[in-house]
Amino acid sequence: MKKDTHPDYHTINIVMTDGSSFQTRSTYGEPGATMNLDIDPLSHPAWTGGPARIGDRGRVSKFNKKFGAFGLKKDSA
Q: Quick check: 45 and 54 in contact, CB under 8 A?
């Protein structure tokens, strides 16, 4: 294997949107660098259900909106 072909893999600090932090190993920056996240599982709508739910924008919801009541009319007898 060739020498010096892989990037330096070192420990960095990750700071979440709520201020909590943890350490992980990465090739980002220099050893001991801090990465501040703008989006994480605490703030992203995909995990939190935010203003527009992910499932509400898909093909199934579009189909149900268009054809949802088709064939479900009750007979008034």
A: yes
Q: Is the pTM of this model over 0.90?
A: no
CA-based end-to-end distance of the chain: 82
Both structure tokens of 67: 């054809």
Round to whole Å and give the CA distance between 31 and 71. Answer: 64
Q: What is the pLDDT of residue 75?
A: 59
Please give the helix or strand (H or E) that residue 12 lies within, else none: strand 10-15
With beta carbons less than 8 A apart as the criterion, state whether 62 and 36 touch: no
For 50-66, the DSSP string reads: -SS-GGGGSHHHHHHHH
